[in-house]
Target: PD40 domain-containing protein
Amino acid sequence: MFSGSAVTGILMIAVTMVLGGCGREGQRPIGYPAPMPDSVAMRFLPGVVSDDSLDFNSAFSPDGKRFYFSRSGKGKWIIYVTEEQNGTWTQPAPAPFNEPQYSQADPFITADGTLYYISNRPRDLADSIPDYDIWRVRPRADGSWTSPENLLAVNSDSTEYYVSLSANGNLYFASNRNGTLGSHDIYVSHYANGKYTTPENLGQAVNSDKMEHDPMVSQDEKYLIFTSVDRADSFGSGDLYYSVRNANGTWAQAENMGSKFNTDTYEYCSYLTPDNRYLFFSADYDVKWISAQQLPWFK
Model:
């Protein structure tokens, strides 16, 4: 989601063999709308998703039939969903788990349909700290959702936002909690023995004395894309950067993703589709997409 001075907290089939385990096993085909992008980023579903409002975030359901995103309205963030019906995507409606008096944004959906998101709703009646936490809901067989669950092991009394999970459940997110190198850093909480561990800062290869947020980790944790603000090599105020995991498990020094992805404005909210065909991101108040073959590690 947006950060900084704007708003705080917003592979084609031919490369499947290259990515190996990056994709989600059992993912059903997604009915992408035409025209589909190649080497130039395009607005996604103009008039449906990319409309005359601040639209950001991207998340497809496991069956590829629903697309979730966030929209700003009436001073709050709201998660919307549009459905593919007979080749047409419906006008979006607020997702049913939104709490109208609070903000919800940054949806991420796992292969089993669990939806993670952020909200400034209080954890309980005693919670008076106006921060954003990570929450999740699970789908029921009848199409409804379970009650929102706060990820207490991950959240702090500061803001946590923009969730991305690897296939093994490790959870990446951004936070402005104590101990950051800059104003906001990227963290990971490892999933072990059915529990989330104490979050760890990804360190200086990824984080800087500036602001890093909106991490997107590949399913096999080999690649990480994120937004960083006002670095010396930036094209605009906020750019997309990437880091590749080294053989020893550490992250390589982050690099700018270049002019195919970044402009003189602000790019954020990166998302790789479950079938690895497209990279989505947000910019210019819209949701955009581009062929994943344009990603730097294929050049």
Notes: The radius of gyration is 18 Å. DSSP finds one helix and 23 strands in the chain. The chain has one domain: 13-298.
